[in-house]
Design goal:
The chain is an alpha/beta fold. It has 13 helices and five strands. It has helices at residues 2-22, 27-31, 64-69, 90-100, 115-121, 129-137, 155-160, 183-187, 202-211, 213-222, 234-293, 298-314, 363-372, and strands at residues 77-83, 106-112, 144-147, 165-169, 191-194. Strands 3-2-1-4-5 form a five-stranded parallel sheet. α10 packs across α11 (234-293).
């Protein structure tokens, strides 16, 4: 049941992705989340020749109905999937995932062909057999690995490994002089079809490398590989180095252009900010100037107020109505020049004008002089 739930979540994920591509994603599927769990294995899958031999019970296959209904825990359905698995990628992992999820209780056995057999029937591989064994062993869906697997499955091989079903895509696989190497498996009712993952395969990856050969050669030369290791001639090596330098110059020019565009954009943004701030400050300055020096500004009011205070300060005070007349006033004090005193000799007489003496300052002095005479 655990395998069914995981396969259901993966199919839901695939449907969500397809629905998003078609623009028809259901809201309930979009909100579906996968619970957090830790189900990864800690060790790679073991090899079949390293396992203990099975019990002495005779080999009896499980029917499709029994396998779908579920088998006891001590009797899992033994599913076999074989392949080259060169440059192990997600397409391989998805095929093994489907094989693992065919039945509720599945023990997945994966057969990997050797280099000699693969080079004979399919062609040269990128990875050697040990690397391919190790790549498959670290796939989480694999329970057991068969090294040097046969190209065509025989009844003896199926009985030796107690295989119940063989999982592979349903496309006829023509090889070794046969139109379909799995035809006898299908006729025996032991074939369990899986689906290929479109858009990814070992041939597609190799095609990408061959198509962009110059790019990858330059990449590896830059990372320290020698021309001899890459099987590149001396002239091509120099050509690739020159191309790499030209590309570096182009990248630098592109970076300078991008940085200059960013700088110009920042200057424009700052200039706009400065202009806006200048306009705000100029409006504020003009407003303050008008408040101070305008027709009704504060300076005019200050000048008016100061003028009023000055006029009030310099204007004479009005005498009160009850002030005394000249006759009622007390006699004014007598003032003499400081160098004239009563002990000094009398001055020479001067002609009198209006009955007054020349050196007398006030009328009171005239009276005093008459008394003395």
């Amino acid at each position: 049941m655990e395998a069914q739930s995981s396969s259901g979540m993966l199919l839901n994920r695939k449907r969500r992705r397809d629905g998003e591509n078609n623009g028809e994603t259901d809201e309930s599927e979009r909100l579906l989340k996968i619970p957090r769990c830790t189900v990864g294995l800690k060790h790679p899958a073991p090899f079949a020749d390293e396992l203990e031999p099975a019990d002495g019970k005779p080999y009896e296959r499980v029917s499709m109905e029994e396998a779908k209904r579920g088998t006891p825990a001590n009797r899992p359905v033994r599913v076999y999937a074989d392949g080259i698995f060169d440059v192990f990628h997600s397409g391989h992992a998805r095929a093994l995932m489907q094989a693992k999820c065919l039945f509720p209780n599945t023990h997945l056995i994966v057969g990997v062909c050797s280099d000699d057999l693969t080079h004979k029937y399919k062609g040269f591989t990128v990875m050697n057999e040990d690397e391919r064994y190790d790549a498959v062993a670290h796939c989480r869906y694999v329970d057991e690995i068969v090294r040097n697997a046969p190209w065509t499955l025989t009844p003896e091989f199926l009985a030796k490994h107690r295989i119940d079903f063989v999982a592979h895509d349903d496309i006829p696989y023509s090889s070794a002089g046969s139109d379909d190497v799995y035809k006898h498996i299908k006729d025996a009712g032991m074939f369990a079809p899986t689906q290929r993952t479109e858009g990814i395969s070992t041939s597609d990856i190799i095609t990408r490398i061959v198509r962009d050969y110059d790019v990858y050669v330059r990449r590896n030369l830059q990372r320290g590989y020698t021309a001899k290791e890459l099987n590149v001639s001396f002239i091509n090596e120099k050509k690739y180095h020159l191309q790499e330098r030209v590309d570096k110059v182009k990248r630098k020019v592109r970076d300078v252009e991008e940085k200059s565009k960013e700088f110009v954009q920042k200057v424009e943004e700052k200039s706009i900010d400065l202009i806006q701030k200048w306009e705000e400050k100029s409006r504020e300055f003009i407003g303050n100037f008008l408040q101070m020096f305008g027709p009704e500004g504060a300076l005019k009011h200050m000048l008016k107020e100061g003028k009023g205070r000055m006029l009030q300060a310099i204007s004479p005070r009005h005498s009160p109505d009850s002030s005394p007349t000249r006759e009622e006033r007390s006699p004014s004090p007598t003032f003499r020049l400081p160098f004239f005193t009563k002990t000094s000799p009398p001055p020479s007489p001067l002609p009198q004008h209006s009955g007054a003496r020349g050196y007398l300052i006030s009328e009171d002095d005239d009276d005093e002089d008459d008394d003395e005479n």
